[in-house]
Amino acid sequence: MIANAEALLKPLTIKGLTIRNRVMSTSHAPSYGKDGKPQQRYQLYHEEKAKGGIGLTMFGGSSSVSIDSPAAPWNQISVADDSVVPFFREFSERIHRHGAKLMIQLTHMGRRTKWDTEHWLPVKSASVTREPASRAISKALEQEEIDRIVADFAAAARRCREGGLDGCEISAAHGHLVDQFWSPNSNHRTDKYGGSLENRMRFGIEVLSAMREAVGDDYVIGMRMSGDEMLKGGLSHEDCVTIAAEYASRGLVDFLNIIGGQARDHIAHAVSLPNMSFPVAPFLPLPSAIKREVDVPIFHAQRVTDLATGARAVAEGHVDMIAMTRAHIADPHLVRKLTEGRADDIRQCVGAGYCIDRIYVGGDALCIQNAATGREATMPHVIEKAERQKTAVVVGGGVGGLEAARVLAERGHAVTLFEKSDRLGGQVNVASKATWREALSGIPRWLVAQVTKLGVDIRLGTEAGEAEIAALAPDIVIVATGGLPQRGEAKGFEHAVTTWDVLEGRSQPSGTVLLYDEIGGHNAASTAEVLAKMGCLVELVTHDRMIGEEIGPTNQPVHLRELYKLGVLMTPNSELIEIYPEGNRLIAAIRNTMTDAEEERVVDSVVVDYGTLPVDGLHFALKDRAKNRGLTDDHAIVAGAPQPCEINGAAAEPGYTLYRIGDAVAGRNIHAAIYDALRLCKDL
Questions:
Q1: Residue 650 pLDDT more than 60?
Q2: pLDDT for 5-34, tens place per residue?
Q3: What pLDDT is recorded for position 652?
Q4: 20 to 30 A Cα–Cα from 493, which one of 121, 134, 290, 529?
Q5: Is 116 in contact with 182 (CB distance < 8 Å)?
Q6: Helix 85-96 vs helix 143-162: angle between axes, to the nearest 10 degrees?
Q7: From CA 203, how far away is CA 179, in angstroms rounded?
Q8: What's the rounded Cα separation, in Å, for the pair 624 and 620?
Q9: Rounded to whole angstroms, what are the CA distances from 535 to 265, 314, 499, 512, 588?
Q10: Which residues of 377-411 are buried (b: 16+ CB within 10 A; e: fewer)?
C-alpha cells in the first residue's frame, strides 16, 4: 500500500451525498457523444472506471445548455432539451450499480467555439472580442439573451436531477462564458455586468442562483474555475480567490474544482493541459491557497499521474478530492488495484497527451498505451483465459511485441519473446532520449514488468530465425520486428544521417545542421531540440505548412516554445532535393513546394526523418509454411472478433498461424502497435 493511502480511500460527504473515496475523474470531452447524447460508448467508458473503484466520475466536459453553444464540435453532450433525460437515467443506473457517483459539467461556451457548426449562430460573449484559439469574433450579449441563458442553465440543472445524476458543476474555467464575464481580458462592458470585479461576478451569481432554485437546496452543485489565469490583463490569483470566497460564502456552490491557467490561445491551452514536459501536479498550490479561504470541498486536476502524488495532496490538506482523469484513461482500474495490494500493476499515465491531442484534430480520445480505453464494447481491460494453452512465439521486443506477449500470457499461453538487442522497448527507447520526452520510457517499463511477472520466456540478444522458431514448435507466431529509419530519396541521401542516429549517439553533429522532416511528428522537433542543446545551429525544414503539423495542441506549442528559445530556424513548405559534399562541408538543396524556387544551404551535417520501413524479412520467410499464410483477416480485426483460422478448427491442426503487427507492417505509432497486438491476441 502506498503512503497516505488511507487518506485517499476515506469517503467524502457533500450535502448528504457520500462518495466512497477521494479519487475522481473530471468532466472532459472524449468525443464519444452521439446525436448530442451519452450513448453506449460514452457510458461503457465511464462504467469501466466505476468497476475499477473510482469514487466519482464526471462526464460531459463542456455539455451545452443552450442552442447557441453548439454541442456538435467534439461530439459533445447537449442538455438543452428534455430528450437527454432518459440517457442520463440509463447512465446513472449503470454507474451506481458499481458503487460510484456520476456528475456532469454544464456550460455555455460563449466565444470559445465556432459559429460555422451545427446551427450557424453567432458566438456570444460579454463583449465583442476575438478568442485566438477559436478564431471567432463574438456578439456582445444583450440583457434579454443573458436572461435566457440563465434560464437555460436552470433548466439543464433540472434535467440532471431528473436524470438521476448525483450532481453537476458549471464550467467557469478554460475561458467559457461565465469566466468570460469574470475576466477583464474578455469583459469590456460598462453596464452592471462590467467594470468592477463585483459587477463581473454578477452573471455567474445569477446562473448559480437560478440553478439552485430549479433543483433545490439538497442537490449538489459545484463550479470548475481557475486559481490564476496566468494572463496579462486576465484574472490574477487574488481575483480568483476573491471569486471563490464570494461564491462559496453565498452558498452558491457545494464544491470548487480548481485548475491553473486558461485556454485562450495555443500555448495557454498546452499549459492548462500539462504534458510530460511539466512536473507532476504543477498547479497544486492554487487549490491549496483557495482551500484556506473557503469552507466547501476543493477538487483539483492537472497532471496528477500517480496515486502517491494524489494521496499526498489529500493527506496534507491541499485538496479534498484529487482528480486523475488522464490516469484513468491509462488505467481505469487503478483504485481497485490499489485496494487489492496490486499498485505495481497500475499502468501509469506518462503524460503523452495523445488522448487530448486527438480530440482537437477531430478524432476521439484514445490512450497512447491502453488500446481498450474508449473501445470497451469490443476490447477488454481484463484478458480472459483461453480454453486451451498454446505455445506462442513473439519476435520483437518493442511495445507491440511486449503487448502481444502480455496478452498471450494473460490468456494462459506459454510465450517466448525474442529480442535481438540487449534491451526491450524498441523505438520508444529512441524517442525517450529526446529532452522532455523521457517519460515515454514508462510505457515499455510497465509492459516489461507485466510480461516478467507473467512468466514470459524473454530471450534478449537473440535474433530469431526459422530454426529458432521451429525448435519451439509453436502454435502461434507473432512478428513484431518493427521498422528501421529510411533516409529518403533525395539525390545524395547517403550523405545524411537519421534522427535515430543522433538520438542514439551514433552521430554527434556539430556546427550548422539542416534537419529535414518529412513526417511532421515528434521525432524531428525533438531531435532539433537535442541538436540545439548540443550547441549546433539548426535549421528545421519541413514539407508541411508548419513545423510539427501532425503534433496535437498539448504538445506542438511546447515544441515550438522550446525551438524558439533555442534559436532554431524553422522553414516550412520546403522539400529536400539533393545533398552533395563540397570540401569538408555539405550542400543541401531545398525546393519551395509552393513556388518551385530552389535554394542551397552550406552546412556541416544533414539529418533526416522520413519515418521507417518495415523489417519484414522473417515474416516472408515464414509465410509459406503458416496455416493462414501470414494473413490477418481485416474484417475480423475491425469487428473485434477472432481470426477465422482460430475458430474453424484449423488451429488444432499441426503447424502455426502467423501474424504481423505494428511497424513491421507499416510505419505508424505507439498506439497502433499496441492496438494491433491487443485486438489480435485477445482471441488467440
A1: no
A2: 999 999 999 999 999 999 999 999 999 999
A3: 57
A4: 529
A5: no
A6: 40
A7: 9
A8: 8
A9: 31, 44, 16, 9, 20
A10: eebbbebeebeeebbbbbbbbbbbbbbbbbbbbbb
